[in-house]
Structures are given as structure tokens and as C-alpha cells.
Amino acid sequence: MLIIGGISLYNFWQKKKEIHENRQEHLDQVKAELKDFVVFFDNTVSEFEHKLSTQAEYFSDTLVNHIFADTKDIESTDLKELRKVIGMTEDQDIYIVNKKGVIVNTTYEEDLGLDFFSFGEFFVNHFNHVWEVGTFVEDRISLEMSTKRPKKYTYQSTLDKQYVVELGLYDTYSENVVELFTQKLNSIADKYRDIDTISLYFGMDKFINYQGHMLTDEQMQEAKTALENNAEFKKAYVDDGVTRTTLFMQLELDDSALQDDYVIRVKYNNERELELVSAEVKLFGLLLLFIIIPISLLILWRAKVIAKPISILLEKMDVIRGGDLGTKVPVIGNNEVTDLAIHFNDMMAELKQSHDTLEEKVAERTRELVEKNKVIESTHKSIQDSINYSKRLQNAVLPKEAEITAHLAESFVLFRPKDVVSGDFYWFENHEKYDFIAAADCTGHGVPGAMVSFVCNNALNRSLYEFSKLSPENVLQHTREIVIETFSKSGHDIKDGMDIALCRLNKDRDELLFVGANNPLWIIRKNEHLSQKELEDRKTIVGDSYSLIEIKGDKKPIGLHEDMTPFTCHNIPVYEGDTYYLFTDGYADQFGGHKGKKLMYKPFKKLLLDMAEASLENQKQELAHSFDTWMGDYEQVDDVCVIGFRL
């Protein structure tokens, strides 16, 4: 049955392939014939066009350089009377186009008020080119949309560049050639049995057709698709109960310059394919009646003979599936099923023996796993206790927010460790007459990052209290020396360290100094307080009432680096209402959103600008909410630390 069905299917596909190959051969013939005729049409029209070009250039020069040298009356001049004066015929039209692309005066009244620019970017670029070159510009003969007559258009800018004088010239000889061209196009389809119509369109933006075969918007898009991709676009549809196919394909013309783009539309019916399907269905029906059905009856009888032993075998298999591996299948008859039952019983005996052995091994391995799990649980508890203790130590080192708000009433700290402990930390100290505040990002995160943060936090405290470094650049300079010295005790060049943004405020709050190691300071400031330099700085984001100013830190960390020069101190002017932000890279580097990408700094800046007038407590809540919303179901990738304070 499979062979017979396969043969029928093979015959069907072979005949269908033959039809498609013949159709492709017809399409190639259509392409070749159209190509030759379009080139002939182009060359013929070119001969007539030379005389029109000479006339148009003369009339255009007369109008631009003499009659409309002064354009004050150009929109009110009686162009029909003027046309007679300069020797133009009624088949030759004048159009005056203003800078907005609108026809403001013309001998062809139907086009008065026509807006070229509304037709798309092509016409905007075209007229701008005419104004730019300032000389005579001509198009090849094309089809006038309203009359469907061939017409040659030329363009020339007035001397003051305020108008374009456009001429449109009909030509009787060209019309005769177009009529012949149309008859030829309509007659090509008569040569082929399955082709209904052949249409030729040209012009990428507005497809023009001499035959009057219009395109719907959908078909115009299909034609553009074929042209842009240089490929065939095929679509089947049902018309009057007959299945037909519309095919668009590009006509490539290297020798023709009359138009830029040509597309052929071929409509053909699929009746031959339907006839083929009908014939194959009839053949298969005969095969079914005289061959397949008798063979099927024979197979059913044979199947019945062996069905009963197989049914018994299936019943026993259900018993075995329930767990009774000792069940045996009765041996019945003397055929293939009999041999199957014998082999099945032998297999079940071996399987039961293997099952008993396996149960003993499973029990032994289970006891081993129980003992190992106890060890793992004990080890895990010890590790977790150590990490929790590290967290308590880190929390003890970090300043309390109440301590910060006691000196900076309007402030917040958003602190989100990735793991239990963090490589990020924030630092605040009130020493003598200064307040020091910083956001730091140490190498790594989790326990390794926390260990580095202890070293760096301790180095900051020593620099301030033990070595009395009060200027922020000296604090970072000495902190770097302490960090390098600490890690050098391992006997290796360890480049662990930290990035940091550090501010120092004096008691009167009229001076703020900033030093950064890789990390910047952001300032939200009212626009009225911006300096000219800040306005011109490309890093400044200017909003409606507030702007964001970015003060870059030095491009080097606290730790071993090829650049060991001193850090730069920035003296920041202080204005009432200024809000300052110190942060690590964890907030901007978080993956999330619909596409799973990084948040990045630009949306971070926009969020802060949008909240410029909000209280610092509301800002903290909004920052936390926006971070959680962006992150969604993604895992937090780094520690997060953001500090804000307002003076």
C-alpha cells in the first residue's frame, strides 16, 4: 500500500514540477520580450525628447532670466496670455511652485494649489536640489497622472530662489509610441494558455501603468517588496470560482534610462494543477478499490490469528508493571508470537534476579548518602554562621543612618548587598569642623568583597584620625598607601582595592570639596544657579527647572595602578537647594527590563532629574521601587550603594 501510494504521490509531484518548469520558462520569455521592447520604446522616445528639451530650455530661460527676473508679480501673472507671448502652444503648460512646494500659478488650472511636498520626501529633495543648483533641470518623459498622457517636465529656480518655474510639454509622437507600447503589452499574454494578463509598472514611489491596470494599496506594497528584494512575490486568490495567482517580479534594464524601476505583474490561473489533482485522485481511487482494499482484508485476517496471544501477553505485562516480576506468559501456538513468549519469560527471569541484586545495592548506597548529608548539613551551618557573623561585623562598621541625618538632615542611603555581606560600603565621619561622606565599591562582592571593604574602611579611618589627613585628596592618597601596604604583606602584587566618591563639607555649609577614584559626583541644581561653563559642558543635562551636573573622578582606583599620581580635588560652589549624589556602579549595571539589558547611567540620571523637587526620603523609596521593577525576575548582579544629601 505504501509503495502504491508513494508511486501515485511521485507521479503527481513530477507532473506538477513539469507545469511549474514550463510556467517559469514562459515567465523568462515574457521578461526577455518586455526587456527588448522597453529598450526599443526608450530609444524611440529619446529621439522625440531631444526637440522637447531644446524648446523647454529656451522657454525656461526666457521666463526665469527675463520675464520673472523680479518675482513680485509671479503669482498673479496671467500665464495663459504669457504663454502665447513667448511662443508656447496650448499643449505646453507653465507651473509656478513656491518654497512650500505648492503650485501657486499655472496654465493647467486642475493642478492649481497642488502640494508636492505632501507626496513624500522624494519631492522635497527634488525641489531642494533645483533651488540648490539654480540651473535648468529636466526629467525624462513620464505619464501625467490625471490625463494618462506622456508629458515631459523641466524645472528651473528663479533668480531669488523663492520659486521654481516648472514646464510640462505634451508630445503627439510620444503619445503614438505609448499607444503602440500599450497594445504590445496587452498582446503578450495571448501567447500563453494559463496567463490572463501581463502588466508593466514603473516608478518606485508611485507605480505608473500605461495600460490602466490599477493597483490596490496591498498590491502596491507587494510590488515594492519584489522590487526592493529583487525577488518574486507570489500570492494565490480565488476569482469567480477559479484559483489564480498574482506574481510580481523585477525587470532589470541596464540599457534603459527612461525610468528607474520596472515591475512586471503576471496573473495566471491554476486550472492545469486542478486538473492534475483530479486525475491523480481518480487513479488512486481505482487502486484503492482493486488492490489496497483486498490486501487490507487479508492483513486483517492474519492479524486476527495472532491477536489473541498478543492480547494475553499485554495482560501479563500489566501485571508485571504492577510489581510482580515472577509472572510468566503462557506459550501458545507455533508461530512468531510463540517464540516471543519464550524469550519474554527468559528475559523476566533475568530481570527479577537483577532487580533483587539492585535493591540490596540501593539500600547500601542510601545509608552512605544519609551519612554524607549529615556532614554536608553540618558544614553548611558552620559556613552560614560565619557569613552571618561577618554581616554583623560589617553592620557594626557601617555608620548608622541616624548618625548621618544628625549632621545632614536631608539625606538618605540606599544600600543593597548582592549577598549577605557586601563589597560596597558607605562611610561618614564628623571630624573637627568637617563632615566626610563617601560611597565606595571594593573589588568583588560577598565574603571576598567584604574582606576588602574592611581593609579599605580601616584605611580611611586611619588616614583621617591616625595621620590627621583633612583634605579629601590627601585622605585618598594616604588611604591608597595603607591599602597597598596591607596587601603587599602577602608577598604578591595584589591589585585589589576600591573605587570611591568622597565629599568634605565645612561646618558653615558654604564649601564642598570632592575627590573621586573612578566614581563621579552628580549634582541636581536649579537652572538659575548654573554657570555658563556648566551650561556649555556636554556632560550637563539641562531640564525645565533643574539640571544635572556631573563632576568626573580621576580614572584610577585606590590600589596598585600604573598611574600613581595624586588625586584631583574639586572645589564645588554651594547653592541653597543643591542635591548631591554619590554611588557605586551596581545600580546602573543591573540587568532587567523586557530585553534583559543593563539599566545604564542615562535612565539613572533621568530618574534623579524627574525627582528633583521630591523629599530625600521619597527619592529613596522611588529609587528602590524603580530598581526592583527594572530587575523583575532577574538576579541582582552586584552590590548597590546610593547616597543623596541636600544642602
TrEMBL record:
<dbReference type="InterPro" id="IPR003660">
    <property type="entry name" value="HAMP_dom"/>
</dbReference>
<feature type="domain" description="HAMP">
    <location>
        <begin position="304"/>
        <end position="356"/>
    </location>
</feature>
<dbReference type="Pfam" id="PF07228">
    <property type="entry name" value="SpoIIE"/>
</dbReference>
<dbReference type="InterPro" id="IPR001932">
    <property type="entry name" value="PPM-type_phosphatase-like_dom"/>
</dbReference>
<dbReference type="Pfam" id="PF00672">
    <property type="entry name" value="HAMP"/>
</dbReference>
<keyword id="KW-0378">Hydrolase</keyword>
<protein>
    <recommendedName>
        <fullName>HAMP domain-containing protein</fullName>
    </recommendedName>
</protein>
<dbReference type="GO" id="GO:0016791">
    <property type="term" value="F:phosphatase activity"/>
</dbReference>
<dbReference type="GO" id="GO:0007165">
    <property type="term" value="P:signal transduction"/>
</dbReference>
<dbReference type="GO" id="GO:0016020">
    <property type="term" value="C:membrane"/>
</dbReference>
<dbReference type="InterPro" id="IPR052016">
    <property type="entry name" value="Bact_Sigma-Reg"/>
</dbReference>
<dbReference type="InterPro" id="IPR036457">
    <property type="entry name" value="PPM-type-like_dom_sf"/>
</dbReference>
